[in-house]
Structure formats: structure tokens, C-alpha cells
């Protein structure tokens, strides 16, 4: 009986490793997101409209707003509150916590 339990445990662990290697449990760098860059406007402090460049990105499991912005920015430091405010302006007030994987959202693209 112990041998059967040991055999089943080894088979189960082998299956888990196989699934983890072939399909993965975490989003990897291999999954590409289709993105198109566009520009939207928002009011700035001076009253005129400022442009918000953005990309339409399909959300993958494990993506967050900050991870998506990090992938697309070029070394510039942007305040987190500005990123959240711009995301909400681009997506009709949607909070970043309410993003769902598989959906497409406008994500600010800072240069």
C-alpha cells in the first residue's frame, strides 16, 4: 500500500511539473500583448488640454497597471498618482483594481 501511495505521489508531482513547464502558472515574458499607441487629452493645471499618450493593451493574468507602465516607459520617473489619474481619465473612471484579464484597456504610455 505504501508503494502505491508513493507511486501515485510521484505521478502527481510529475504531472504538476509537466503542466508548469508547458503552460506555466505565472505570466511570462513570452506572452506578447497587442498594443497600438494613440493620444488622448486631459486638462492640465494651466487650464489648457494636455495630451496623454496611451496604448490599447489586452490584460494578461498577473498584469497590474504599474507593471504595464513600467514595460512601456523609457526611464522617466512618473508619480503613481499621475499614472492612476491618467488611467482613470482614459478608461471612463475605471479604477486599476477593477481591471480584468482578457479585457483591453487604454494604458498611459510615458516617454
Automatic annotation (TrEMBL):
The domain of life is Bacteria
Q: Which residues form the LysM domain?
A: 55-107
- InterPro entries in the record: LysM
The name on file for this protein is LysM domain-containing protein
Provenance organism? Peribacillus saganii
Amino acid at each position: 500500500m505504501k508503494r502505491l501511495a508513493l507511486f501515485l505521489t510521484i505521478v502527481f508531482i510529475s504531472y504538476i511539473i509537466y503542466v508548469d513547464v508547458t503552460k506555466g502558472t505565472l505570466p511570462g515574458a513570452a506572452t506578447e500583448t497587442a498594443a497600438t499607441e494613440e493620444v488622448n487629452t486631459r486638462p492640465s493645471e494651466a487650464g489648457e488640454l494636455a495630451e496623454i499618450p496611451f496604448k490599447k493593451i489586452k490584460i494578461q493574468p498577473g498584469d497590474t497597471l504599474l507593471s504595464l507602465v513600467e514595460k512601456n516607459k523609457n526611464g522617466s520617473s512618473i508619480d503613481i498618482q499621475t499614472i492612476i489619474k491618467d488611467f482613470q481619465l482614459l478608461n471612463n473612471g475605471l479604477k486599476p483594481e477593477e481591471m480584468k484579464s482578457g479585457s483591453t484597456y487604454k494604458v498611459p504610455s510615458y516617454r
